[in-house]
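[Q] Does anyone have a clean structure-token version of this?
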Amino acid sequence: MAKNDAAIADMVAKAIAGNQQATEQLADLYYHAVFRMVYYRTRSKADAEDLTQEIFMKMVKYLPRLKDRKRFRPWLFRIALNKVRDFHRKKQFLIFFGGNPDNTPAEAADNPQCQTGTPADMLMQKEFWRQFRQLGDSLPRQEREVFLLRFADQHKIKEIAQVLKKSESTVKTHLYRALKKFRQNNELRNLLKGDQ
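[A] Here you go.
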């Protein structure tokens, strides 16, 4: 369901004024995109569901503070990105102090991208996502965020700059560096082409 900026800004204005239906429409409109973003970063369906719920609760709480209604989408994804960062900091804190959080990466079969096709297709998809995560883990933090926001979350350069509070030229530089490393990863490129 694609909405233009004016329609979204109108929905945001209604939600700020207390219109429950507009608030629910905003949540419905962005739920899957936010969930996908969180899932790619947590690799756990249960954690992604919990965090997505918390993100939308924060959206409702802080929506009256949004100054530019036309920037709702990058504002929402900034909340999501900060929530994921908090999640990882808490997890590291628990690990450091001897806690035992469930930090096993989710199986690729739980990934919404890997639930269709023949068994051979699913195996190739599973291997692709394993390689994709491995590449993502090897990138410096800023390159990884830009790469994921662009290709996993399908944001435009301008939106990524707004989400990360960086200039568009900085975003392009990080994206260029990440893409160069992606192109150098022969295994991942071969999987995309369908080679084995």
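[Q] Thanks! Anything notable?
[A] The radius of gyration is 18 Å.
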